Amino acid sequence: MRIALFLCAWLTCLGAQAATVDVASLDRGTWPEKLSSPALFDVASRAEILMFAHTLLASEALDEAALKQRLGLKIINQGAIDDLRRHLWQRLLENYGFAQQSCEQDASFCYLVDNMDDLREQAGKFEVSDQSFYIGWAGPSRTFHQRYLDELLRKAALFPQISSEVARFGDFERNGDELNDRLFLLTFDGGPAPLNGQTDWLADYLRKQKMTATFFALGNSLQTRLEKTSAADVQALYQGQCVGIQGWQYRSHSHWVDWQSSITRSASLTQNLLPENYVPLFRPPYGQRRADSQGFFQAQGLQVALWDIDSQDEPGQLKADESAQRVLTLMLLWRKGVIVFHDTQDKARVALPMLLQATAQSGLGWQECREAFR
């Protein structure tokens, strides 16, 4: 008991320190061009990749003491941080390779990068001159990527004691790495909202746009919605969309005694109520799940569905337009991935149309929900 109490206190302390971070967002108005073609999407993508790579490279000069101070933590998992950095560099190299395929159309931010050494060299000397057309973007972008990198490094520093989407425990966990370039999957957490709330609006909006998303439902919210309406109404709510599970309650599944029951109860309800929509995916609230859970998930026929583009649309985080601009910047940086909003919040109602308008001519695509995570 003493050990358990000490561990809980330690984790609470670390979590409290981790919560003090400034959430990264970037005013896309500082970027002087619309993303009105695939080539212009690539220009902006190359710029964000190089700025993030520059920031990542600079962070490697910090020793452990300096890194602890920067992240505001007393204890860090240096091995997990090193693993994250290797993964980030690999993604950046791959993404820059895709982004430079249009250099013949527009050579802005195009440099000779054939391998990791080339990328690190270009990252080290990357700067935007005062006379550049893009100088208004450079300072805000640098601040964004420093904050965003700190978000990632902090999560890695706490992993696996506090698990998150920043790393996987095995192949039974998916995070969108397998998607093709320029392809994004929309996901929504924490629903369904009360009757005639945000879930209704979002699902209807997606159908009108001929798009699909994966809604990760909470068992208790789904049960409440069922009791206040009917099975037919709930089925109509999610028509054409995919529905995964998020457990019975929106709480961490890493140290909850009843975590398995939470998952099996919500899976049974969702599968029986929505057989046409159900997908065998579990989205852990806060990204927190147990390191030793692979056997359970495999026995249940479930995969853990993580994400890599967080809208930060929860209460107390970003405003709706800031959330949209954060997501768009991360779409340019990562060029593919799983985007997470919350359908109990009203911010996605503003952010999603902004995203679609900003990227309508950029050549990207939206992953059909049933084809994801296969």
TrEMBL record:
Keywords: Hydrolase, Metal-binding, Signal. Residues 1-18 form the signal peptide. PROSITE patterns: NODB (PS51677). CDD domains: CE4_NodB_like_6s_7s. Gene3D superfamilies: Glycoside hydrolase/deacetylase. InterPro entries: Glyco_hydro/deAcase_b/a-brl, NODB_dom, Polysacc_deacetylase_ArnD. GO terms for molecular function: hydrolase activity, acting on carbon-nitrogen (but not peptide) bonds; metal ion binding. One of its GO terms (cellular component) is membrane. Residues 182-369 form the NodB homology domain. GO terms for biological process: carbohydrate metabolic process. The keyword Oxidoreductase does not apply. This is Polysaccharide deacetylase family protein. It comes from Pseudomonas proteolytica.
